[in-house]
Specification:
Radius of gyration: 21 Å
CATH class of one domain: Alpha Beta
Organism: Trebonia kvetii
CATH topology of one domain: TIM Barrel
Keywords: Hydrolase
Strand order of the largest sheet: 4-5-6-7-8-9-10-11
CATH architecture of one domain: Alpha-Beta Barrel
Low-confidence stretches: none
Mean pLDDT: 96
Shape: globular
Strand content: 15-25%
Largest sheet: 8 strands, parallel
Pfam families: Amidohydro_1
InterPro entries: Amidohydro-rel (IPR006680), Metal-dep_hydrolase_composite (IPR011059), Metal_Hydrolase (IPR032466), MTA/SAH_deaminase (IPR050287)
Protein name: Amidohydrolase
Structural class: alpha/beta
Order of helices and strands: EEEEHHEHEHEHEHHEHEHHEHHEHEEEH
Length: about 425
């Protein structure tokens, strides 16, 4: 995934500590005495996937038949208002487990109880950018003070793998003044911003009614947008709003599977890309997607636009894979996203010895890209390496016990459900 989109057929990747030391053709010619050697024959060695819009999830499959606004009020908000520390920890562990098992090495996670999420991220070994669900006080979610406290508690944990951004839930629960204060806090902490914008038509109409402007216009006027800001969804951007995103260098997370399931529509990704906006990919939450598999998201991110525009030239496989790796890393300012000496060692091994990658011609890069985006799913990921640490090998997570995570996540969901019943 470098600038030339190099593919080495029979090559090597050398990791020293948390960095990539060498990448190239053939066997490594340097000294390997004392090194651990992973035989990757029959596998694709590639950068880990970056899930640019992610929510820890506790209630997959629960009351998920509703459109966005009704779903939030009847299901999502009651669940996250009733989290306890252990429920949050194990929900995060289960969410991060699903990511790791499908090749995700970085999550941009907006949720609540960030110290508990931070513990889970450190323990399981994932790279995580965490942000709070900040809203106006009457909505009984998080405040900017909660976000500052979370920054003080966990930013920089896990040898720097854990970062804390300032999060804004969405404009229907916010105000221009809150957006301005969020920008001031982010600047004070020298950190980034994560916000939902223009996700649904009802959100756009609410913003026009309350503020006389569309959501992205309100965010722009408040100074919220910028090169340190990730705006999620952006399904209903006007031409003016696309221009504002371009002007400010704001990054967009495209979440096609979630947008489709919630009936929110199809984002204008071709126009965003044509404007030069950096667009990454996210799965959103398994409550409104039911899968954290980023391979599935990649497929949606191509097919949806081809179908809607009746244009098979859109969203070619190498471009989509770039969105899931390099673009997401760039949005977060991370030294990940492609394999090159000096970059952070977030690397996955994808096994091609299965029907998903059959047939496979010899030394055919285009076919490899095609299989990765259109044929594969996360079960093809054999090994996940994050910050130079092997966190999954042979599909077995090496950090936390998977059976314990699943058992405790189920128990946590039942405790939260009992509080809202």
């Amino acid at each position: 995934m470098d600038d030339e989109r190099s593919v080495h057929f029979g090559g090597h990747v050398v990791i020293d500590g948390d960095r990539i030391a060498a990448v190239g053709e053939g066997r490594y010619a340097g000294d390997t005495a004392g090194a651990e050697v992973i035989d990757a024959a029959g596998m694709i060695v590639m950068p880990g996937l970056v899930d640019l819009h992610f929510h820890t999830a506790i209630g997959k499959g629960y009351s998920d038949h509703l459109p966005l606004w009704e779903y939030l009020d009847e299901c999502w908000y009651p669940l996250i208002r009733n989290l306890d520390a252990e429920s949050a920890y194990w929900a995060a562990a289960a969410s991060y487990l699903e990511g790791i098992k499908s090749g995700v090495t970085t999550v941009n996670d907006m949720y609540r109880r960030l110290p508990d999420l931070g513990r889970a991220a450190v323990d399981i070994g994932i790279r995580a950018v965490l942000s709070n669900d900040v809203a106006l006080p009457e909505h009984n979610l998080d405040t900017l003070q909660d976000n500052k406290d979370a920054y003080d508690a966990v930013h920089g944990a896990g040898d720097g793998r854990i970062q804390v951004y300032v999060g804004i839930e969405w404009l229907p629960l916010a105000s221009p003044e809150l957006l301005r204060d969020a920008r001031l806090l982010a600047d004070e902490l020298n950190t980034g911003i994560h916000v939902h914008l223009n996700e649904s038509l009802t959100e756009v109409e609410d913003s026009k009614r309350r503020f006389g402007r569309r959501p992205t216009e309100v965010a722009y006027d408040a100074g919220l947008l910028g090169t340190d800001c990730v705006a999620a969804h952006c399904v209903w951007l006007s031409d003016t709003e696309i221009a504002l995103m371009r002007e400010t260098g704001t990054h967009i997370s495209h979440n096609p599977s979630s947008n489709a399931k919630l009936g929110n529509g199809i984002a204008r990704v071709p126009e965003m890309l044509a404007a030069g906006i950096n667009v990454g990919l996210g799965h959103d939450a398994v409550e409104c997607n039911n899968s954290g598999d980023m391979f599935e998201v990649m497929k949606f991110a191509s097919l949806m636009h081809r179908a809607a525009r009746v244009d098979a030239s859109l969203q070619q496989a190498p471009d989509v894979l770039t969105m899931a790796t390099r673009n997401g890393a760039a949005a977060l300012g991370h030294e990940t996203g492609y394999l090159a000496a000096g970059r952070k060692a977030d690397v996955i091994l994808v096994d091609t010895r299965n029907v998903m990658f059959t047939p496979l011609a010899d030394r055919n890069a285009a076919q490899l890209y095609s299989h990765l985006v259109f044929a594969a799913n996360g079960s093809a990921v054999d090994t996940t390496i994050i910050d130079g640490n092997i966190v999954m090998r042979g599909r077995q997570v090496t950090t936390l016990d998977e059976a314990t995570i699943l058992r405790e996540a189920n128990a946590g969901f039942r405790r939260v459900l009992a509080r809202i019943s």
